[in-house]
């Protein structure tokens, strides 16, 4: 009869000695632990990293352990999917044997390949974005090529807009002309207009006084009779 507990304890001791800086026990019942895996430095000295969590099944290694990615650095969603798929494949191939070291080693190799793939992919995405930006900029400068069809379409729309604006303007001018009253019409509508200014001043508290000394009687004015003018000639009036 297989002693699963003994096999699990022995593997834990081995893992702790192999990964002293990245191995952490989380619980003992069930046995759960994490191992942090970091890739080798890539071409740009960049690394990728993930923390794997394993939990022993009761009959491990005859049963596949539970596994998950607790955290990651510089990995994208499709990279995480690839790692989980790899773990499943390796676990099925090694069923019946202690396998944690094998699983971690497979992930390590995968990360070493990914680190350069990620750099290449990001450079390609950057070039693609720059190309799209250049195309958009060219489009702004060159605009849409003019053809007979799109010119005629633009011309028809332009003429329609111009005609509509002209109609609106004429309607506004017509409406303005109807609402505008002449001075005679204003007076006929309100006969108090001739005294409205004086009334306005009086309501404002300003009294209106007329200095009669500024005026003279007509009899006091010295008006020269045309007949007394020595140069007066009635015939000149007829000639005019």
Automatic annotation (TrEMBL):
Which residue ranges have biased composition labelled Acidic residues? 209-231
Cite the InterPro entries for this sequence: GIR2-like, RWD_dom, UBQ-conjugating_enzyme/RWD, ZC3H15/TMA46_C
Asked if the record carries the keyword Acetylation, the reply is yes
Q: Which residues form the RWD domain?
A: 10-114
Keywords (A to Z) from UniProt: Acetylation, Phosphoprotein
Annotated GO CC locations: cytoplasm
Presence of the UniProt keyword Metal-binding in the record: no
Note down the stretches annotated as region Disordered.
169-188, 197-240
Which Pfam families did the record assign?
Answer: DFRP_C (PF16543), RWD (PF05773)
Q: Could you say which protein family the record assigns here?
A: Belongs to the RWDD1/GIR2 family.
> What's the stated role of this polypeptide?
Protects DRG2 from proteolytic degradation.
What's the protein called, per UniProt?
RWD domain-containing protein 1
| Species of the source | Eublepharis macularius (Leopard gecko)
């Amino acid at each position: 009869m297989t002693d699963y507990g003994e096999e699990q304890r022995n593997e834990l001791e081995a893992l702790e000695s192999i990964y002293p800086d990245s191995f952490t026990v989380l619980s003992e019942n069930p046995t759960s632990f994490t191992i942090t895996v970091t890739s080798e430095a890539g071409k740009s000295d960049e690394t990728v990293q993930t923390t794997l969590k394993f939990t022993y099944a009761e009959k491990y290694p005859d049963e596949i352990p539970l596994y998950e990615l607790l955290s990651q650095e510089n990995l994208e969603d499709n990279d995480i999917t690839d790692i989980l798929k790899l773990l499943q494949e390796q676990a099925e191939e090694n069923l019946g044997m202690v396998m944690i070291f094998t699983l971690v080693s497979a992930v390590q190799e995968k990360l070493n390949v990914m680190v350069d793939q990620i750099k290449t992919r990001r450079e390609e995405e950057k070039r693609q974005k720059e190309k799209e930006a250049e195309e958009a900029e060219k489009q702004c400068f060159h605009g849409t090529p003019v053809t007979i069809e799109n010119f005629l379409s633009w011309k028809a729309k332009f003429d329609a807009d111009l005609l509509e604006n002209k109609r609106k303007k004429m309607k506004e001018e017509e409406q303005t002309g109807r609402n505008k009253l002449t001075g005679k019409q204003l007076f006929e509508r309100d006969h108090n207009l001739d005294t409205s200014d004086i009334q306005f001043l009086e309501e404002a508290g300003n009294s209106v006084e007329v200095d009669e000394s500024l005026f003279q009687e007509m009899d006091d004015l010295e008006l020269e009779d045309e007949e007394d003018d020595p140069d007066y000639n009635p015939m000149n009036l007829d000639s005019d």
